[in-house]
């Protein structure tokens, strides 16, 4: 039994994460493309807006505000959103540096999960298990994953 969007009152709630993934993907694309074109401020500004809008579509507005405006993440949020503002003002290189620093501060608790996931991918896992890289990835992630 198929339901169409006219008869389903919860249809917008199910479509929002899909739209958010698209917006986030386009945002990352525009950010990458803007950096490849020697920090084109228009592409970086579009990428920033799409990335933040996509994130709020994926996890919801309330959870986005709760994530960014936690007391212990105030410094990270300041750097990330300050970098977005600096890019929008017109200083793309300084803004991207601030954004990257804020991004790493915001998502540093998520990096051990990413390293653990990458270690389970066949080719990338074997690269991460090389002697020198293994020591660096274990030290950076803070976990000991065999």
UniProtKB/TrEMBL annotation:
Record-annotated membrane-spanning stretches: 21-39, 45-65, 77-94, 100-118
GO-annotated biological processes: endoplasmic reticulum to Golgi vesicle-mediated transport; retrograde transport, endosome to Golgi
Membrane topology label: Multi-pass membrane protein
Keyword hit for GTP-binding: no
Keywords from the named record: Golgi apparatus, Membrane, Transmembrane, Transmembrane helix
Superkingdom: Eukaryota
GO cellular-component term (any): endoplasmic reticulum
InterPro entries on file: Got1, Vesicle_transpt_Got1/SFT2
Main subcellular location of this protein, as a coarse class: Golgi
Subcellular location: Golgi apparatus membrane
Keyword Cell inner membrane: no
One Pfam family in the UniProt entry: Got1
PANTHER family per the UniProt record, alphabetical: CGI-141-RELATED/LIPASE CONTAINING PROTEIN (PTHR21493), GOLGI TRANSPORT 1BA (PTHR21493:SF250)
Function: May be involved in fusion of ER-derived transport vesicles with the Golgi complex.
Family: Belongs to the GOT1 family.
Name used for this protein in its record: Golgi transport 1Ba
């Amino acid at each position: 039994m198929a339901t169409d969007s006219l008869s389903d009152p919860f249809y917008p709630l199910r479509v929002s994460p899909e739209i958010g993934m698209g917006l986030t993907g386009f945002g990352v694309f525009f950010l990458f493309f803007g950096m490849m074109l020697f920090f084109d401020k228009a592409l970086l500004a579009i990428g920033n807006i799409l990335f933040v809008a996509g994130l709020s579509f994926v996890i919801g507005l309330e959870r986005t505000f709760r994530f960014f405006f936690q007391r212990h993440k105030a410094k990270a949020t300041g750097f990330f959103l300050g970098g977005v503002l600096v890019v929008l003002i017109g200083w793309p290189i300084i803004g991207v540096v601030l954004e990257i620093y804020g991004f790493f501060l915001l998502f540093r608790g998520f990096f051990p999960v990413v390293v653990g996931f990458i270690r389970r991918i066949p080719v990338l896992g074997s690269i991460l298990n090389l002697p020198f890289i293994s020591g660096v990835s274990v030290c950076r992630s803070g976990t000991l994953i065999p």
